[in-house]
Amino acid sequence: MHDNSSKYRPVNGLSDKQMNKLADINKKAVSTSYGCDLINASMVGIENLIELCGDDASRNGLAETPFRVVKAFMEYTKGYQEDPAEILGKSFDVEFSELVLVKDIPFNSLCEHHFAPFFGVAHVAYIPQNDVITGLSKFARLVDAYAHRFQVQERLTAQIADTIEEVLRPLGCAVVIEAQHYCMCGRGVKKAGASTTTSSMRGVFRDKAEARAELLALINSKN
Ligand SMILES: [Zn+2]
Description:
This protein has ten helices and seven strands. The protein is α+β, with helices and mostly antiparallel strands. The chain has two domains: 61 residues, no CATH class; 133 residues, GTP Cyclohydrolase I, domain 2 (2-Layer Sandwich).
């Protein structure tokens, strides 16, 4: 159900300027009555959460917080609007069949259990087959397309590898993610600085110890 009028549907208490900010992030949501109902209900939810925590949602510093939180969450989860396969889809025909590694791609994500941040770096590698190569910047966009969703690190790692495998059909691909979780650092067990490493190895990286060893040496090298 698309509303084709140029004006967005009204959302309680939000100015046109605020609606435009939301539209910059997710035009589809602000252009449908369903989306606007969800924005309204989400802001009421945040207001209630503030009250539940014991503060006064109407006091000065918190009055616009429901809007800010909803806007921030729409930004954190922009990946839902992306088609990851399409990002990798534009491939080139270049004669190259050696290991390609893009190291230290920074990312941030939200743990789906607590909506707490986790963040770190992703290393993405593949060995092209049949000269199917993609632009190196595409891997950073691919990481973001999956990181900007409600996630767990293990699934994030596997989804990136799955997409590379499906779209580029390489001889092998590998994704290694090192991350710190606010869940672990800031609440619960409170272990500041603890980091978690996950990896997904496909094709030759899974089957051949030497390929895996070459990759891990490159990831662990300083440059
Ligand atoms: Zn968590």
